[in-house]
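To fix ideas, we reproduce below one chain and its tokenised fold.
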Amino acid sequence: MILCYHDVDDGWVSPLAIHPRRFADHCAWLADSGRVVLLDQVLQQRDPAAIAGDPRLALTFDDGLAGVHEHALPLLAEHALPATVYVVAGTLATGGRPVDWIDGQRPGTVQAMTETQIRELLDAGIQIGSHTWRHADLTSLDPVECREDLRRSREFLEDTFGVAVATVAYPRGRNNVVVRRLAREAGYSFGLGLPETPEPFDCWGVPRTGIYAANGTRALSVKASPLFFRLRMSPLYPMARAVVRRLS
């Protein structure tokens, strides 16, 4: 299974931002579980059903926000937990761009990681992947624009950091058959979604489970269970989600 975090921050009140103290509890629980492995180890099975139902856990962080460097990295290192951070490549290009894609937040509320901070993540053993060039809803783009966004992000990250970028996490998890095909054509081996309803999955539509600010360790333990994932991909998911909310 693949878990999806966003930010770890003590000053930003958002469902996407887990408080560092809560994230410390998460890290302790995850380390004690003995189930956390590199994302590559989960994906190398290549069988989408096996990837989705793998009881091992891979940790991912979308958006490449600075709080992950400041607050999450020390805790991941303390507990020897591997992770993959998905970077919006356009935030690093000449002149950069603000984090302006978060609903209800003014640009400048949160900051993206700098190139130097991402290099420090890489030096610490954290992997990086593409979160596209500009965090657009890929399903809203025409095919030429979508393919170019995906390709440009991958090539920029590979050229800048000298690492292979084989995976893309779709902004807001949104994808469809066309987006998946274009991700494959743009050179990605895997695409990661974040479905809220049952949807077909394959290597370019691998589902993840979102972990949010309200989720304590009890909710995390439920969300990290293979049973929850099976419910999540079934019509019973609304009931499972209600249980998690009561535990949070």
About this structure: Residues 154 and 196 are 26 Å apart (CA to CA).
